[in-house]
Amino acid sequence: MEKTVICPGSFDPVTYGHIDIITRASKLFDKVIVGVFINVDKNPSFSIEERIGFLKKTVGHLKNVEVVGFDGLLVDCAEQHGATAVVRGLRAVSDFEYEFQMALTNRKLSPTLDTVFLASDAQYTYLSSSIVKNVASLGGDISNFVPEIIHDEIFNRLNKT
Ligand code: ADP
Q1: How far, CA to CA in Å, does 101 sit from each of 48, 71, 97?
Q2: 18 pocket-lining for ligand 1 (C-beta < 6 Å)
Q3: Could you tell me if the CB of 13 is within 6 A of ligand 1?
Q4: Which pTM was predicted?
Q5: Pocket test for ligand 1, best of 5, 6, 18 (most atoms within 8 A of CB)
Q6: Topology of domain 4-123, per CATH?
Q7: In a 3-state reduction of DSSP, which class is residue 37?
Q8: What is the pLDDT of residues 35-72, one digit of tens each?
């Protein structure tokens, strides 16, 4: 049976850390749905269209990856796309508590939906969308954080110097 998984996140914006996890998942599973939260708690810096656009430009070459926006419960989005597991990246122990809580909540809501954690690449353990936003807003170099193809669009938007 074909194994479909979902990688959910805000991706505000996508970084090399996200791309690493999505690429790993695409090698492990038959199909990967990248689910972009439409309504992010924290006011997103980029619109849903922009966040999806950045992802398509950076993981679009992976043939078994599809990028979708979603609103509402992750378990519903997973079911809608036939995903049997959620894939999340773990950077450090500090990620663990929140991720474990979410995994167990999702299991309560949908007992058959499991969560798989993939260890981040050591070179990206420090990296997050917030780091990109902070550094770029101060005019710092973000070329080690996001791919060249989306770099200028992100930098020009965030740079406040
Ligand atoms: P959320 O807002 O749900 O935390 P993010 O967009 O920050 O979503 O992250 C989406 C997924 O990518 C999460 O599983 C997160 O752990 C993972 N992730 C983010 N940055 C990295 C990184 N540097 N290395 C590995 N995984 C990462």
Answers
A1: 26, 20, 6
A2: yes
A3: no
A4: 0.96
A5: 18
A6: Rossmann fold (3.40.50)
A7: strand
A8: 999 977 778 999 999 999 999 999 999 999 999 999 99
